[in-house]
Amino acid sequence: MNSENYKTEIHNMIQNGKDPKDMVIQMCRPQCKWYDDKYDRCVKAFLSLKNADPEKNCMYPYRDLVTCVEACVQPKIQHALRGNEHGSIFS
């Protein structure tokens, strides 16, 4: 799906009272492959250790992945909100 189709789909979902975030996350996640791979490597490394909890020990790579995905998702949803037709809700 190209960017214009996503913009239309996001707008339609918002108009129908649905949350488009899960769909946009799926669209944005491939753009953060480097962070995703880094997190996966961390989890695999900690799973190979005894008594290690990857959820606690891989917090920073996971934070980097979430930050990357959110940086992609937020503007796509923000621009589809009512009142943001001219580029800024607060203008």
From TrEMBL:
Domain Ubiquinol-cytochrome C reductase hinge: 19-81
Pfam families reported in the protein's UniProt record: UCR_hinge
Listed InterPro entries: Ubol_cytC_Rdtase_hinge_dom
Record-given protein name: Ubiquinol-cytochrome C reductase hinge domain-containing protein
Taxonomic placement: Eukaryota, Sar, Alveolata, Ciliophora, Intramacronucleata
